[in-house]
Amino acid sequence: MEYIEALKWRYATKKFDPNKSVPNDTLKRILEAGSLTATSLGLQAIKIIRVESPEIRKALLPHCYNQHQIVDASDLLIICAHISVGEEHINEYIERIAKTRNQNISDLNGFKNMISNFVDGFDSLEPMQEWLARQTYITLGTLLTACALEQIDSCPMEGFKPKEISEVLDLESLGLYPTLLLPIGYRSEEDKNQHLIKVRKPITDFVSNI
Questions:
Q1: How would you classify residue 185: left for phi > 0, otherwise alpha for psi between -120 and 50, otherwise beta?
Q2: 109-120 and 87-101 helices, crossing angle to 10°
Q3: Contact, 115 vs 43, CB < 8 A?
Q4: Does the 3-185 domain belong in CATH 3.40.109.10?
Q5: Are the CB atoms for 98 and 108 separated by under 8 Å?
Q6: What is the pLDDT of residue 181?
């Protein structure tokens, strides 16, 4: 599907068909697209949790204001950010660059020091977490586009209780916190929202030339 038409096709699906599943190869491509998204410094301080268990999804439901997309959709993706970034994450990243590009780690010292200085520049955990959370929204944009191109429906969700979601999934022990939920699958024929005309600003109001 041509990408403009794909983006016109997609909408925030309110009711999924629980009897339809996303093929594994399609899901793999969507997740790979997410891994290829841009992130600040290339750090990828992000993890996507795919919740396969129906029991766990049901346990999450009351913490998502009983929005049934999370149990009816084929797959539920939880986009998480790292709680913080420290020396361990930076070293792992530098080692991955060296291995992937066949470089000496010592040749990357300047880049490593730049990242360390940037991270050390946060005066508290809160602004660091705001920065990390923004990376997950960039990732969300890539996932939404990938889903649209694959003609897989999706519904980005901020309406949930992060603390409770984190407790159910024990995310804190993994050094993660949830910022977004993304149920994906196939729209139900009963979802009337699919027939609504998309409402957007005219491009002349959305873009200004200076």
A1: left
A2: 150
A3: yes
A4: yes
A5: yes
A6: 98
Measured at the CA of 96, the angle between CA 114 and CA 132, to 5 degrees, comes to 55
Q: How many CA atoms lie within 13 A of 165 on its CB side?
A: 26
- Give the number of other CB atoms < 10 A from CB of residue 141: 13
Q: Are 184 and 152 in contact (CB under 8 A)?
A: yes
Backbone φ, ψ for residue 75 (5° rounding): -140, 150
Distance from C-alpha of 140 to C-alpha of 124, rounded to nearest angstrom: 26
Helix (H, G, I), strand (E, B) or coil at 133: helix
Token pair 């196939």 is at which residue? 186
pLDDT by position in tens, the chain (length 210): 699 999 999 999 999 999 999 999 999 999 999 999 999 999 999 999 999 999 999 999 999 999 999 999 999 999 999 999 999 999 999 999 999 999 999 999 999 999 999 999 999 999 999 999 999 999 999 999 999 999 999 999 999 999 999 999 999 999 999 999 999 999 999 999 999 999 999 999 999 999
Q: 140 vs 135, 147, 195, 204, CA distance in Å? A: 9, 10, 24, 26
- What count of residues does the chain have? 210
